[in-house]
Amino acid sequence: MRPYLALSLALCFTPALANDNAGTTGFGFLKVGVGARPPALGGAFAAASGDLESSHWNPAGLWGISQRSATLSVSRYLVDTQAGFLSTAFPSEKQVWALSMNYFSYGSLTRTDDEGVEEGSFSPFDLAAYLSVARPLWKPWLKVGANLKAIYSRIDKYSADAYALDLGAQVSGPFKGMSLGASLTNLGFVRSGYAGSFKDPLPVTMRVGLAHRPAHTPLPLLVVADVALPNDADPYFSFGTEISVGHGLYLRPGYSTQQTGAEGDAPLGLSAGAGLALQGYRLDYAFNSYEDLGEVHRVALSGSF
After folding, report:
1. Which one of 3, 151, 158, 271 counts the least CB within 10 Å of its CB?
2. Residue 229 to residue 205: CA distance in whole angstroms
3. For residues 209 and 225, what is the distance between their CA atoms, to the nearest angstrom?
4. 0.85 exceeded by the pTM?
5. Which domains are present in the chain?
């Protein structure tokens, strides 16, 4: 069970691990960021729009997708675990609908009895299916969005399931090229827990952020910043910059205080990534480093059809 326990620690990890609520929620995979572009930007994506990966961070950001499109991302996560995210969007003049699936695998683990004798193996996994919608409420000032989620988790012969709602909104900022966003994710209930009547609460997170495309810069760029307030950890801050260097190439440095070490040691939560957009397709890569836990690599492919 070592990989499963190590990941549980990682999902609760913040610069102040001593938070009284740390480790009190279940379905921890819901706190793991999806895609490659947002994690490269430090996870600051509450105010970004027109991207299928927004469904995880703020469903209102789905508005702005103008063509039927899909994205697939895979992640080599901590302690040899793996994650995948698949999403498809169907835009119309009035709204954007999307279907998504978020999958997390813990690999093959050894089963033992009470005395430590091996009894084969098992493969824990988590799964969440989303139905998303985004639309403008007052054009062009306000956009809103929502996700309906069905969540399932299995560890050997034990399973748990839950249902949740995500809500999001984005508004135009006070400066040209700026937008402000807020989301509240994983509001819901656990229908069935792993053991008897005990049910772990869901990991609810509120995000507030901004995205800005400054005018008159040498290279086109997007600046993003978020503050996240989870119900099982201290607040943390994220920000990043996406720089278009030409020929469809994007560079994305980022930072998140969620990724700093237990004592605030280097590398201070840095993240990095790049994207290449050619002929209607975009290939993205992201790298994140957790001081005490290891490195995370993510790759995503998006395109219209």
Report:
1. 158
2. 6
3. 5
4. yes
5. 2-110+120-304 (2.40.160.60)
